[in-house]
Design goal:
2 copies of one chain form a homodimer. Chain A is elongated, with a radius of gyration of 26 Å. Chain A is about 40% helix and about 20% strand. In chain A, strands 2-1-3-4-5-11 form a 6-stranded parallel β-sheet, with helices on both faces. A 6-stranded mixed β-sheet of chain A has the order 7-6-8-9-10-12, with helices on both faces. By secondary structure, the first copy, chain A, is an alpha/beta fold. In chain A, helix 7 links the parallel strand 3 and strand 4. Chain A has 3 domains: about 55 residues, lambda repressor-like DNA-binding domains (434 Repressor (Amino-terminal Domain), Orthogonal Bundle); about 130 residues, Rossmann fold; about 130 residues, Response regulator (Rossmann fold). In chain A, helix 5 packs across helix 12 and helix 10 packs across helix 11. Chain A contains 12 helices and 12 strands. Chains A and B meet through helix 4, helix 5, strand 2, helix 11 and helix 12 of A and helix 4, helix 5, strand 2, helix 11 and helix 12 of B. Chain A binds a DNA duplex (30 and 30 nucleotides) through helix 2 and helix 4.
Chain lengths: ~325, ~325
DNA sequence: CGCATCCGCGTGAACGTTCACGCAACCCAG
DNA sequence: CTGGGTTGCGTGAACGTTCACGCGGATGCG
C-alpha cells in the first residue's frame, strides 16, 4: 500500500527512472514529456502517467545545458517598498514575459546592502542585468563580464546600456510653472541617499540660477515619513517657502502632510510638485502635481535596449547604447 | 591589435578555452575561479586575468547540474501595480535572499493571464512556488509535481502549503467598530475579480447577519479608479450608506475620493475602513482606518513554510501545512 | 513479390562544470 | 640517503537532458 514514496528525501526521480518504470528508453520519455512526434498516443499517455506518479520533473539545469536557449534577466532595485520601483518593475516583467524571458528580482534595500551586493548575487544566475545600479554600475558590469547590463539613472558610464533622465528639462518645466504661479522662495526637497540624488537637485540648482530664481536645498531620507518630518521643521522657520519641488512623489506626499499639519494651505500658501508620476499622486488630497514619467515606457525601453544588446545588433563597436527620457509636467491640484 | 573578440556572436567561452589559453587544466581554472586551495597565487591571478579577458563566465546550468544545490523560488502575483503585492513581495524577497535563495517574479495581471499561466511559466524554472494562485492553486501544484507550493488566500486546498486569513475575525473587528460609531447602513465594497473576492464579503455577510446588522454588497474592479466610480454612483442613491468596508485599501482610497467629491464628509457622513494595511493609507486625507496585516510577517511566513516543506520536516504524512493569519484594526481618521 | 516508405522506438554523443582521485616534485627530519 | 608529508596540478567520471542518427517491422504501391 505504501506507494514506494520517492518522497522529498532521496534523489529526485530522473528521466532514466521513468524510462525504466515504463519499459521504454530515455528518448521516448523525452518525446512523451515534450509532446514531440514519433510516439504512439498510448505510450505517450502511459509514460506521462508514470512520470506523474513518480513525481518526475525535468532538471532545468540539464535542459538548459543542452539547449542553451532560455534567457533570464536580473532586476536589481533598491526598494520594492517605494511605489516607484514596483511600477517600473511591473513593466519590465511584462516586457520580459512577452519575450519568453523570466525575471529574477533582487531588492537590495533591506539591511545595509548596496547595488554591488545585488549584482553579485544576481550575476551567477542570469544572462543579463537591468537595474538602478548607481553608484556601482561599473562594478556590476565587471561582475557580469561580457553579458549586457542596462543601468538606469546612473551618471557614470561603464555599462553596455544606459537609460537616463533629462533632469534639466524636468527642472525647467517645474520651476517655470512655480515662477508663473508667483513663487519666489522655492525649496528642493532632496534625497540624501543614492547617487541619483545629486543629479536631480544639481539640475534644479542650475536651472534656478539660469532663471535668476532662489532655490534652497534640504535633504531627508527618500520616504514619506522622513520628508514629512523634514518639512515640518522647515515650515516653522522664519521666512516661509512658497513652493516645494520634491525628489520624488513619495517625498512630496510627506511634504503635503507636513504642510497641512502645520496649517499651511496647499497650494495656497505653498505649492508642491512631485517627481516621477506614480499612481499614488492621484489619491492624495490635494491631488499631486508632478513631473511624470511614462513608467511603463521606462521598463519597455530597458528591456528593448537589453534585447538589442543581447542580439548583438547594438553597441558592437564599443559605443554605449544610451537612451534619455523626459519628464512631463502633469498639472493637478497641488501646484 | 583587435582582441580576437569572442564577441556577443560565436559560442561563449568555456572553461576549456580558459584552460587552453592559460596553459593549465580545467580543474586549475575551477580552483582559480572559485578561490579554492591547492593553487599558487601567481597561477590563480594569471588564470583570473585571462578568464576576464576572454569574457568567461561559468555556465549556471553546468554548475547547477553537478552541484545540485541552489534554490530558486517562483513568486506568482496578480498585479505589481497594486501596492499590496509589492509590499508582500518585498518581504518574500528579503526572506529568500537571507537564505541564499533567489526569486523569480511573475506578474500575471497583464494581458488576460491567469495564475495558471504564471505557474506554467514558472514551473520549469524553479524549485518551489509561492503565490496568490486562487482559483488555480491545484493546477499549479500539478504543474510543480512533488515540488512544494505555498498558496496564499486560496480557499481550495490542493497545495502542499497554505496561508489564509481569518476574514471572520477581520469582519467582526470592523463591523463592531462601525456599529459602535452608530452606523446602521453599511456597505461592503467588494472586488469583482479573483477567488478571494467571495471569501471576504461572505465572511462580512455572515458576521453582519450574526450581529443583526444590515450589510449591502456592491462590486467593482479592485482598483482605486473603479472603486471611485462605483462609490460615486452609490453616493447618489436614495438611502445613503453611513459606513463602507472595502475589499482592500486601494478600493477604500477610491471610496474616499468619491465621497469627498460628492460632498460627503468622512467619517462624518460616512465612515470608511480599508483592508490589508498598506503604507498608502497613512498618506491619504483623512488617513485611512484599516484592517491591517503585518505585511512583512506574511512574506516571512510564506518563505518559512516553504523552507519546512523543502527540508521535508513538514507535511511528510500528507497533512497539509496551513497557517492562518489575522488582521488587526488600526484606527486612524476615516472611521 | 520486391522495393520504398513511414512509424515507433532505441543508442551514442554532447552540453560545461565539479568531485574524487592520482601523481610528480619538492622539502625536511631522521 | 631515505621515508613521509606537502604543494601544485592533471585525469576520468558523473550530473540529466536533448540532438542526430540508426534500425527493425509494418504498410503501401507497382
Amino acid at each position: 500500500m505504501t506507494p514506494r514514496s520517492t518522497g522529498p528525501k532521496g534523489k529526485r526521480a530522473t528521466i532514466l527512472d521513468v524510462a525504466a518504470a515504463s519499459g521504454v528508453s530515455r528518448q521516448t520519455v523525452t518525446r512523451a514529456m515534450n509532446d514531440m512526434a514519433g510516439i504512439s498516443p498510448e505510450t505517450r499517455e502511459r509514460v506521462q502517467r508514470i512520470a506523474s506518479e513518480l513525481g518526475y520533473s525535468p532538471s532545468r539545469f540539464a535542459k538548459g545545458l543542452v539547449q542553451g536557449a532560455k534567457v533570464s534577466i536580473g532586476l536589481a532595485i533598491p526598494d520594492l517598498t517605494n511605489p516607484y520601483f514596483p511600477a517600473f518593475a511591473s513593466s519590465v516583467v511584462e516586457a520580459a514575459t512577452g519575450r519568453g524571458w523570466n525575471v529574477v528580482v533582487d531588492d537590495y534595500g533591506h539591511g545595509t546592502g548596496s547595488a554591488a551586493d545585488a549584482a553579485a548575487r544576481l550575476a551567477p544566475q542570469v544572462d543579463a542585468l537591468i537595474g538602478y545600479l548607481a553608484p556601482h554600475a561599473d562594478e556590476a558590469q565587471a561582475l557580469m563580464g561580457r553579458r549586457p547590463v542596462v543601468a538606469l539613472d546612473s551618471p557614470d558610464a561603464g555599462t553596455a546600456g544606459r537609460i537616463s533622465f533629462d533632469y534639466h528639462h524636468a527642472a525647467r518645466l517645474a520651476l517655470a510653472h512655480l515662477a508663473g504661479r508667483g513663487c519666489t522662495n522655492v525649496a528642493f526637497l532632496d534625497s540624501n541617499q543614492g547617487a541619483p540624488a545629486g543629479s536631480r537637485s544639481a539640475a534644479a540648482a542650475a536651472v534656478a540660477e539660469e532663471a535668476g530664481m532662489q532655490l534652497t536645498r534640504f535633504q531627508a531620507e527618500p520616504s514619506a515619513a522622513a520628508a514629512k518630518a523634514a518639512v515640518a521643521l522647515l515650515a516653522g522657520r522664519a521666512e516661509p517657502v512658497d513652493g516645494i519641488l520634491a525628489f520624488n512623489d513619495l517625498m512630496a506626499a510627506g511634504a503635503l502632510k507636513a504642510l497641512q499639519a502645520s496649517g499651511n494651505a496647499v497650494p495656497g500658501d505653498c505649492a508642491v510638485i512631485g517627481m516621477d508620476g506614480i499612481p499614488l499622486g492621484e489619491l492624495l488630497t490635494p491631488e499631486l502635481t508632478t513631473l511624470a514619467l511614462d513608467l511603463r515606457a521606462v521598463g519597455r525601453a530597458a528591456v528593448g535596449l537589453l534585447e538589442g544588446l543581447l542580439s548583438g545588433s547594438l553597441a558592437e563597436g564599443g559605443t554605449e547604447a544610451h537612451l534619455i527620457l523626459r519628464h512631463e509636467l502633469v498639472l493637478r491640484q497641488s501646484a
